[in-house]
Design a protein that fits this description.
The protein has five helices and five strands. The chain is of the alpha+beta class and 108 residues long.
C-alpha cells in the first residue's frame, strides 16, 4: 500500500441491501449515532481510520470473505454496534450491522 493510498479520503458505499436493512432497523437513537459515525468516516483518510482508537478497524479472521474480497473488517459504528465492511480502493463497502458482537465475528 502506497502513502497515497493511506492518505486518500475515504468514500462510502452504503448500497448493500443487508446493510441498509440493518441500518434502518436500528432504534432511532442508535440509527442517528450510526449516521453521525458515517458522516465522520467520510471526512477521514484511510490512515486516520487505521489509527483511530474509537473505530477499532479490525480484520475478521474467523469468517472467510466472499469470493473476490481479500478480507472482511469490523469497525465500531455506534457505542454498542460494529459494522462489517471491506476496503475496495478508496471505498469502504459496508455489508451489515450484526445484532451483537459475536455475530460480527461469525460466532454463535
Amino acid at each position: 500500500m502506497t502513502a497515497a493510498d493511506r492518505d486518500a479520503t475515504v468514500r462510502l458505499d452504503l448500497n448493500n441491501p443487508v446493510f441498509q436493512r440493518d441500518l434502518f432497523g436500528l432504534q432511532k437513537a442508535e440509527r442517528h449515532a450510526a449516521l453521525d459515525m458515517l458522516g465522520k468516516l467520510r471526512q477521514l483518510t484511510w490512515n486516520q481510520i487505521y489509527r483511530d482508537k474509537g473505530l477499532r478497524w479490525e480484520k475478521i479472521t474467523s469468517v472467510a470473505p466472499p469470493v473476490g474480497i481479500t478480507a472482511l473488517y469490523s469497525l465500531r459504528i455506534t457505542q454498542a454496534r460494529r459494522a462489517v465492511a471491506y476496503r475496495d480502493g478508496d471505498f469502504i463497502r459496508f455489508l451489515s450491522i450484526p445484532p451483537d458482537h459475536d455475530a460480527t465475528y461469525g460466532k454463535k
